[in-house]
Amino acid sequence: MQKRTKILIASLSVVIIAAAVAGSWLVRQRTAAESQRYVQTTTPTLFLHGWGSSYHAEEHMTNAAKQAGVTDTIIRADVDRQGRVTLSGTIPAKAKNPIVEVGYADNKNTQYHTDGRWLRNVLTTLQAKYRITKFNVVGHSMGNMAIAFYLLDNAGNTRLPQLQKQVDIAGHFNGILGLNDAPNRMKLRKTGQPTVMDADYKELLGLRTKYPRDQVDVLNIYGDKNDGTHSDGDVSNASSQSLRYLIADRAKSYQEKKIVGPDAQHSKLHENPEVDRLLIKFLWQ
Length: 285
Fold this sequence. Notes:
The chain is of the alpha/beta class and 285 residues long. It has helices at 2-35, 56-67, 112-130, 142-154, 199-204, 207-210, 237-241, 243-247, 273-284, and strands at 45-48, 74-79, 85-88, 99-104, 134-140, 162-169, 217-224, 253-260. Strands 3-2-4-1-5-6-7-8 form an eight-stranded mixed β-sheet, sandwiched between helices. Helix 4 (142-154) links the parallel strand 5 (134-140) and strand 6 (162-169).
C-alpha cells in the first residue's frame, strides 16, 4: 500500500512539473508572439502629465503598454523646481521601445516656455547618458503645452534628439473652460483656425513655420462627455482641435480621435482603455 502511494505521489509530481514547464513555455511563446506585433526600436517614448499632477497619472498608460508586450523597460525622469533632472531606473543596451515617465516637481507652472525648457533638459540628459537621437512623446493636458512650447523654441535645433511621433491627449491649446473659454463659445473656421485666439495660442502660431516639416506623425485625442458642452468638462473640443491649424500642414501625418461618454472626462482620459489601445497602435504597432 505504501509503495503504491509513493508511486502515485511520484507520478503526480511528474505531471505537475510537466504542466508547469508547459505553461511557462506557452507564456514565453505568447509573449514572444505579442512582441512581434510591435516595432522593435530603441527610440524612447516620453510621457508628460498635466497641471497639478505627477508621473502617477501616466502609469495606467505605460503599464498598459508593458502588459501588451510593447516594452519591458520603464524608467522615470524627475525634474526639480530648478529644472534639474534625476533619472530613476536604467535603460539596458538595445532595450526595445523604452518608456520614460516624466515628473515635474513644479506641476502647476503655467510658464510654458519654462515647461518646454524642462522637457529639453530631460532630452539632453537622456542624450548624454544613452546617446538617443530620436524620441516619441505623449502629453496629457498641460503636458501638451510643454511639448508645443519645446518645439516652438527648439524645433530647428538639429543637435537635439528629433521627434518622430507625438500623441496629444486633452490638449488646451486655445483656452480652458472657466478660465478663458466657455462651452460652445469657440468656433473653428474651415482651415481649423479659431475665430478667437488667446495669448498662448497667438504665440504658438509660430509653429506654423517652425514645426518640423514631414518628420512627425501626430495623433490628437480629445474627449466629449456627450453632455451638450462639446468638451471633456475642462477643455472644449475646439480648443483641442485647434492644434490642427498650428501643425497639420507641416506634420508627416496628422489624425484626430474623439472619445465619447463619461470616461471621456478630462482626467479620465489618461486612464481610458480606448486611449491605451489608440496610442499603443499609433506608437508601436
